[in-house]
Amino acid sequence: MIIYNVTVNIDEDVAVEWLQWMKEVHIPEVMQTGMFTDQRICRVLAEEAGGFTYAIQYTCKDMETYEKYRDDFAPALQQETAKKYGGKFVAFQNLVGSSRMRPYQGVRAKKFLGQHFLNDEAVARSIVDALILPDGIDQVLEIGPGMGVLTKYLLQHEEYKTFAIELDRESVPYLLEHFPALKGRLMEGDFLQLNLDELFEDRFVVIGNFPIIFLHKFYFVC
């Protein structure tokens, strides 16, 4: 059994409307996917700097079922929420399950690498949707894909070929397991030490959820 937990902090001025919409519209739509067997929503009892915090928990039978929901259903549902309440909430997701299951969060964010994994699917999709390639360019290099939250949306675009480079040795096997399309396109190493002219004959664009402490270095390399 796996519990998919979504924690949401919603602005006070729309909290009552949002809670009613969650109960009457959004949660029923999630359950109608057939991926979950149970659900509950509860208020988080903690001091809050602003707004109200809720935890929405969905129960599914195994990791495969969750991943099907994540890939096939979650993006549209999260986009609907963002369209209705964009700028009025912040959310993060995590999984709870038995120690016998294959962990979804099998890669630890490492402070010395400046890692902070993006886990908001709506934000990830919006970043990829905002990517516009100039005429004549059909290659995209993702820097530091981590657990692939951007990667999965990049790979859905057949009009360009996605490459990735990852410094974290723990992330590389995870990415190859979850995104077989990266085979032959995933490089292990430090982007800052790459000779880009040797790797790419033609022009390409760069994308990534960059560690802010290294952002100025990426600018000068690119």
Form type: elongated
The average pLDDT is 81
Uncertain stretches of 5 or more adjacent residues: 98-105, 109-115, 215-222
Which percent range fits the helix content? Answer: 25-40%
Rg measurement, Å: 19 Å
Order of helices and strands: EHEEHHEHEHEHEHEH
Strand segment tally = 8
Q: Structural class of the helices, strands and pairings? A: alpha/beta
Beta-sheet strand percentage?
Answer: 15-25%
Q: Largest sheet, order of strands side by side?
A: 2-3-1-4
Distance between the termini: 45 Å
In DSSP terms, counting alpha (H) and pi (I) runs of 4 or more, how many helices? 8
Sheet having the most strands: 4 strands, antiparallel
Structure description:
With 222 residues, the protein is an alpha/beta fold. The chain has helices at residues 15-31, 63-72, 74-85, 121-129, 151-154, 171-178, 196-199, 215-221; strands spanning 2-10, 38-43, 52-60, 89-97, 139-143, 161-166, 186-188, 205-207. It has a four-stranded antiparallel beta sheet with strand order 2-3-1-4. Strands 7-6-5-8 form a four-stranded parallel beta sheet, covered by helices on one side. Strand 6 (161-166), helix 6 and strand 7 form a beta-alpha-beta unit. The termini are far apart. Residues 98-105, 109-115 and 215-222 have low confidence and may be disordered.
